[in-house]
């Protein structure tokens, strides 16, 4: 399946494109329902636990990620715009257990679109960072490998449906 990972250092963006053999409604659900997000949003063997999910414009998803060594990380997704089954816009960042954003790890504004292509769906995520330094930090943290791994998990889950 198509996977493109394209940093643009001129405008501090990262565009990620991935095709899935599924319909739009299935993929949308895996992006918007906490019980489904928890199954794929972090690379294996991490486990996600939803702390709070308020999926609506102005709402948020606060989640915990834990690995087998006992390391725990928290994330916060703040929903800005929701066009059901077509587009999601949100701010996503690491945070603490209380939801306070970690300013030492850059967050990004995401715009995610869902486009049908025959029997496939193209998910395009455009991440916009505050600065080139923020983009570079995320690239150095290994986001490409993490996205590949999570999308492979999502592929498997969609194939089971």
Automatic annotation (TrEMBL):
Activator of Hsp90 ATPase homologue 1/2-like C-terminal domain: residues covered: 22-158
UniProt-listed Gene3D superfamilies: 3.30.530.20
Family in the record: Belongs to the AHA1 family.
Protein name listed in UniProt: SRPBCC domain-containing protein
InterPro entries found in the cross-reference section: ASHA1/2-like_C, START-like_dom_sf
Pfam family, one: AHSA1
Domain of life: Bacteria
Signal peptide segment: none
Source species: Chitinophaga sancti
